[in-house]
Automatic annotation (TrEMBL):
<keyword id="KW-0858">Xylan degradation</keyword>
<keyword id="KW-0624">Polysaccharide degradation</keyword>
<feature type="domain" description="GH10">
    <location>
        <begin position="18"/>
        <end position="311"/>
    </location>
</feature>
<feature type="active site" description="Nucleophile">
    <location>
        <position position="233"/>
    </location>
</feature>
<keyword id="KW-0964">Secreted</keyword>
<protein>
    <recommendedName>
        <fullName>Beta-xylanase</fullName>
        <ecNumber>3.2.1.8</ecNumber>
    </recommendedName>
</protein>
<comment type="similarity">
    <text>Belongs to the glycosyl hydrolase 10 (cellulase F) family.</text>
</comment>
<keyword id="KW-0326">Glycosidase</keyword>
<keyword id="KW-0119">Carbohydrate metabolism</keyword>
<keyword id="KW-0378">Hydrolase</keyword>
Amino acid sequence: DPTLHQLAAAKGKYFGSATDNPELTDTAYTAILGSEFGQITPGNSMKWDTTEPTRNTFAFTKGDAVVSFAKSHNQIVRAHTLVWHSQLPSWVSSLAATEVQAAMENHITQVATHYAGQVYAWDVVNEPFNEDGTFRTSVFYNAMGSGYIATALRAARAADPTAKLYINDYNTDGAGAKADAMYNLAVSLKAQGVPLDGIGFQGHLAIQYGFPTNMQANLQRFADLGLDVAITELDVRMILPRDATKDATQSTYYTNVVNACVAVTRCVGVTIWDYTDKYSWVPSVFSGQGAALPWDENLAKKPAYTAIYQALGGI
Ligand code: G3I
């Protein structure tokens, strides 16, 4: 049988998974990670708290390990993430407003330069919006206003001229105020000539909340601005325990997301936020929820796997 990535590649796209360093010692896990996917995202190891835990002291060992795994398995890397309000070391949050821009530019320059030429894309700015479409308050927004986004993108382009530069967010997958805010931001950045190559739609879905409205049309309007789009962190959680009905609903969500990406020429690929329930972030954040991924905690394929396989054209 073809792999999910082989099926996606036949449609000009990648199919990828997030991973994290501790899991890379699990050989049953890495056997599938290394063979089924064409793209890897480090789930934590390129974030600010890992790469610059104290000011101007950089740590690339964990990120390098993920890049090295990807290289040895012929996989491209979506690097994640340079500027985010979360997993930010306390030294950044404690800076005087007048120091934040220099610290942000130095962080981007050092980290993006280190990985220049080795990564396909960067999530330069992660999760800039509140649910109502207003800009999220953060140390960056407070110091620079929304202009921090353009500043970050320019610094990333200067450090790595070949990586595709993305803004990435959640609950922007379908129509709504937050997606409209992202759209207006993209229009404005393009009009100013800011280096922006793509928009990432995280795709953290939950069967109890319904499928996003008009996802394909939402992706297409960004593509029509001349941007790539990508599904960057897909998972579909449920209230535990799993049963056949919930699995079937979950499968339709995976099908719908893959169909939307396949239907949009500029949708470059789909990344699931790890591939097995064994290493999903969901249960630790949403108590009583989980089973969000296409492989179960024993690394056995679930109905969601078959749904993805078939949506990618597998028979
Ligand atoms: O590294 C420490 C370890 O030393 C400590 O013993 C352990 C005890 O709790 O915590 C470890 O850090 C955890 C880290 O993951 C690494 O496992 C943090 O507590 C935990 O909060 C962190 O969670 C990550 C989360 O981002 C943080 O916001 C998840 O793994 C990661 O999958 C998740 O990914 C985010 C994306 O970056 C952005 N979009 C949403 C997505 C899901 O939340």
